[in-house]
Amino acid sequence: MVNREDRSHLLTVRQSRARHIPAWLKQAIFYQIYPQSFHDSNSDGIGDIPGVVQKLDYLQWLGINAIWINPCFVSPFRDAGYDVADYYRVAPRYGTNQDLYRLCREAHRRGIRVCLDLVAGHTSIDHPWFKASCRSRRNKYSDRYIWAPSAASAAASPPLSFIRGYSERESSYVANFFYFQPALNYGFATPDRLWQYPVDAPGPLETRKELVKIMTYWLGHGVDGFRVDMASSLVKMDPGHQKTMKLWQDIGREVRALCPDVALIAEWGNPEESIAAGFDIDFMFHFGVPGYTDLMLNEECFFRRRGGGSIRRFLGGYVEQAAKAEGKGLIAIPSGNHDIKRPRADGRTVSDLKVIFTFLLTWPGVPFIYYGDEIGMRYVPGLASKEGGYGRTGSRTPMQWGDGPNAGFSTAEKDRLYLPLDTHRNRPTVERQANDPGSLLNHVRNLTALRKRSSALQAEGTLIPLPVEDGDRHFAYLRQSGHERFLIALNPSAEPSLLHIDGIRPDNMSPQIRHGAQARVEGDDIQVELAGVSYGVFKL
């Protein structure tokens, strides 16, 4: 319940655009494409860039106006492309550089921006830079990676991951994640050993120059921005990430001087730091600042039909971070991604997903839809690990386009597919849902259309969360911009709920998108009846 006395305590979050944030991000609705699983155009069983081009009309129809493509560069693919062997060339399994240039042109023709995944912190052990760095004779790449005398490496504090016995150098290299991903050398925040270089040493400075060169190369060929992998990991032993933040500020200035409209998106997990570092967007995600796990992943998270928790656990962290990012950058809450279980997991139904998407597409910041989530693709358990996926592999299965062979993903033989398809007899498909007005796909499409035509629902619209008690399973909030105002009410639980809002008297109230939600004006108040698993978007 919200009464007049409580209204002075309402939390208001306004997202205002800073000068350097590209204006197009205000209306952006992103779609994440895992290229090897999206659409196969040449029948080899692996998705590719021409396959993405073939599906641009679908993305435009869905209301998408920006895409993020997971790594598509030359790689041995031990970690699905996050082990880059050539930053300047598209991997042959995905096509050619000309295919990517064409994708940018065709996307732009449809009003869709293109962002690439930039692995800034490490390469593959197969990268020519690393092979040169492994040589005992000094060369221009000797200090491009972090090397330590084998006897000294164990004494590093905090501990780093050292790989011994690999090269002809009598040294160990630092690995960022898997052993085959040697860390590029951007320096140490406070070097205290001879092998630890400061950030302004020649080796780290050359690494930084090369990163800017990579970015400007692809921007020059039509790319609109980058999602940066492990963006906070560059400078080592950097408590508070102060030196890493300074590094990104410098890089951002250089890149924006050449391309002012570039979008920089951080896999950081702490918007307060990443936005200060000059990124336009950061994900409130499954690591870093708590938030996303309290929404989607925990057993006690808010979006659970039974046994879920209060929205308050998420809201406290979100409001704090949004206030610190205000006027400087934006926060993104995705439907999921390639590293976590899909939202259609752990017993969730299409009805549950409709509540989730109503939230995601009416919330401030920039929404990201992971491919297939818009039709409710399932997390497929029990798959053998593919390209370092391990437990994440079940979220990377082929896109389900139709009811034909291989769900329309590929015409290759089934045993040649990148990953097995979901074998559930009622697996969702785009073809089946596109002509069903009540489908999840059309629900998402209706929401994207509403968001695009309503400034109050876009990235910069003001957010006013209406107070909830710890035991409440419903949640309601206002979004407004100028004279435009919306009330959104959600109930992800199986139990019905009644929401009474005092002190808000609209001139009129019209439902825009709803299911199981009834709202009426009573004097100066609004009363909303919410059935179990329900949602309502009302224009006031």
Low-confidence stretches: 1-11, 13-19
Given the C-alpha coordinates, what overall shape results? globular
Gyration radius from CA atoms, angstroms: 24 Å
What's the assembly state of these chains? single chain
What CATH first level of the largest domain would be assigned? Alpha Beta
* Helix content range: 10-25%
User: How many strand segments?
Assistant: 19
- Count of folded domains: 3
CATH topology of the largest domain: TIM Barrel
Properties at a glance:
single chain, 540 residues, alpha/beta, TIM Barrel, Oligo-1,6-glucosidase, domain 2, Immunoglobulin-like, 3 domains, eight-stranded parallel beta sheet, six-stranded antiparallel beta sheet, 19 strands, disordered N terminus
What does this structure look like?
This protein has an 8-stranded parallel β-sheet. Strands 14, 15, 16, 17, 18 and 19 form a 6-stranded antiparallel β-sheet that branches. The protein has a 3-stranded antiparallel β-sheet with strand order 6-8-7. A hairpin with a 7-residue loop joins strand 7 and strand 8. The protein folds into 3 domains: 356 residues, Glycosidases (TIM Barrel); 62 residues, Oligo-1,6-glucosidase, domain 2 (Alpha-Beta Complex); 84 residues, Immunoglobulin-like, CATH 2.60.40.1180. With 540 residues, the chain is α/β, with parallel strands linked by helices. It is globular, with a radius of gyration of 24 Å. The N terminus is likely disordered.
